[in-house]
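Trying the structure run again after the queue cleared.
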Amino acid sequence: MTSHPLKYILTAFFLIMYISAVNPVNGGTTMTFTLSSQVLNNSQPIPLEFTGFGKDISPQFQWTNAPAGTKAFVMICDDPDAPAGTWVHWVLYDIPANVSSISEGLPRTKTVLNTAKQGINDFGKIGYNGPMPPPGKTHRYFFKIYAIDKETGLGPGIDKSRVMKTIDGHILAQAEFIATYRR
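Done. Tokens:
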């Protein structure tokens, strides 16, 4: 009884796929850079206290499995469903590489977490400003964290566009968390 060549090809293919999914540096499994929150639920409505209709405080986040070589993090929150186009709610950059969480209610100051800088949002303010959409459809709020291979070198008060241009080509990994709000 002879074996079919396709059997060997498929066996080799699956063996290669398995080997490529194993990363011996971190114990044999591929680790995914993730962003999560203890106060928000992914794809669920943002509680009132984190909106412009409530206390308007920044939510808590934590991230895990940052890639090797990470020198800093950048956090951006924006709403692509805003009537005028994507609306930026938060620009936070040069978060130190040894930081893996942001506590709830960061102050609206230019510098937080010792050396991290807050930029200007589309409300024209420093720090986080939560959802304040017009009545109608549900809006999505994308919280994105970028692991980068160098600090930006930017001062505080910079807008999202300039921060993103500065980190272009330096992003090692990105994680995303989506929440919603409807008025």
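Strands lie at 34-36, 61-64, 72-79, 87-96, 101-102, 111-112, 116-118, 139-148, 171-181. Worth checking whether this holds up in the mutant runs.
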